[in-house]
Structures are given as structure tokens and as C-alpha cells.
Design a protein that fits this description.
By secondary structure, this protein is of the alpha+beta class. It contains 3 helices and 4 strands; from the N terminus they run αββαββα.
């Protein structure tokens, strides 16, 4: 965290929310080993807004259960930057 320009959400520990509000823009990722910590630390260092990171369970077209992650951002601009620039998404 930069001392000259502190982010109020970071100072108050309110950046990562515990549930995904309906107005968040989301993307679903496949679950890989140890991706949660790496992606969350990348988001904390590169982006400034509120975000959600959590587990996701879905049915695919063959009615098989798939487990993954849901990543959501309060602004669509941050979701776009995340999907384009995050180096950990190349494993999906």
C-alpha cells in the first residue's frame, strides 16, 4: 500500500466482499491448485475497487457437476482489465 495515496477500502479492510452483490460484473474460472491466493493478491496489488472471489458449482451441458471460482468486480472496467492482464488466467 502506498503511503501517499491510501485506498480507503483497503484501510478499512472492505475491498473483498463476502458475497457477490447482483450489480457486480462476474466471470467464472476453472478451479486449479492454489489459484485463490495468487489471484486475490494480484487483484489487491493491481486494482482499486471492491471485488468478490468465491467458489462456484454449476452443471455443464452433460449434467455433470463442475467446480470453479466466481470472480466479480463492482465496475466493468476492472473486470475487463482483470481478464486481459491477469497472468494466472492463462491456466484456464
Amino acid at each position: 500500500m502506498k503511503l501517499k495515496d491510501p485506498n480507503p477500502l483497503t484501510v478499512l479492510n472492505m475491498r473483498r466482499v463476502s458475497f457477490c452483490p447482483p450489480h457486480f460484473e462476474t466471470v467464472t474460472l476453472k478451479k486449479h491448485y492454489n489459484m485463490e491466493q495468487a489471484i486475490c493478491s494480484w487483484i489487491e496489488s493491481k486494482l482499486t475497487g471492491r471485488y468478490f472471489f468465491g467458489n462456484n458449482v454449476e452443471l455443464d451441458s452433460d449434467n455433470n457437476i463442475t467446480v470453479g471460482y466466481t470472480v466479480g468486480f463492482e465496475t466493468a472496467k476492472e473486470l475487463s482489465y482483470f481478464t486481459l492482464a491477469c497472468p494466472y488466467l492463462k491456466y484456464n
